Amino acid sequence: MNKPMRIILHIPHSSIRLPHYKGFKVSKEKIDNELLKLTDWYTDDLFQFSHGITVRAEFSRVFCDPERFVDDSQEVMAQFGMGVLYANCDDGSVLRQVDQNLRNQIHSEYYWPHHERLNQAVQEQLTQHGKSLIVDCHSFPSTPFKRDLNQHSSRPDFNIGIDLFHTRKHLIELSKVFFQSKGYSLGIDWPYSGTIVPIEHYQKTSKVQSIMLEVNRALYLKEPSNEKSEDYEQVKELVHEYLTLIFNAFNSNY
Length: 254
Hints:
By secondary structure, this protein is of the alpha/beta class. It has a single domain, classed as Aminopeptidase, CATH 3.40.630. It contains five helices and six strands; from the N terminus they run βααβαββαββα. Strands 2-1-3-6-4-5 form a six-stranded mixed β-sheet. The chain is globular. The protein starts with 6 loop residues before the first strand and ends with a helix.
């Protein structure tokens, strides 16, 4: 008997764990400053959903960013020293020395096992239900990072990231109507774009659908700290409503 349909919640940037400090050239205080700035705080809690399968990176993006391409020639952020393994801080200063041995080790022990977990979750849904939906779960600061490609200071409350092959128009339209009805502004591929799809299915399997949802941290944090604001639970409830909406739509119509 098939298990009930579930959506896959990919949570790549909520952890603050650094498995080791090989190659790091700065003080713990400097590393902690980068963790404070770059972590998608509490997204593992904000995106809790009873009909979800959570695939969470158990290491910080400061250690290894599972949403970057391993090939620096394909990764736009590599030019800033912030490819899959961050060599620079957000301000451009040196963070870590990355040699080929360290790169190979982190790829094999952390990056690829994380992606295999994501791919297995997708494959399980495809096998059981003939379709799979990934929600790429993020937050973003109300003020751009120094290395952000988009430096526009006026940012939306929420953003959805899409892929023309893997995000059906109906999911985009549902998102627009939902956030408008709640009185929130919504960016589409702005200030960040795209959404994750396992490489095994990327541009190949249209039954694998994906959409990124990002929450402006000003809605739920007392920026620039990581302290929760008084609106935290309200935002969490809103995210749950959105996940319920797209889960029901995907379960019924695709």
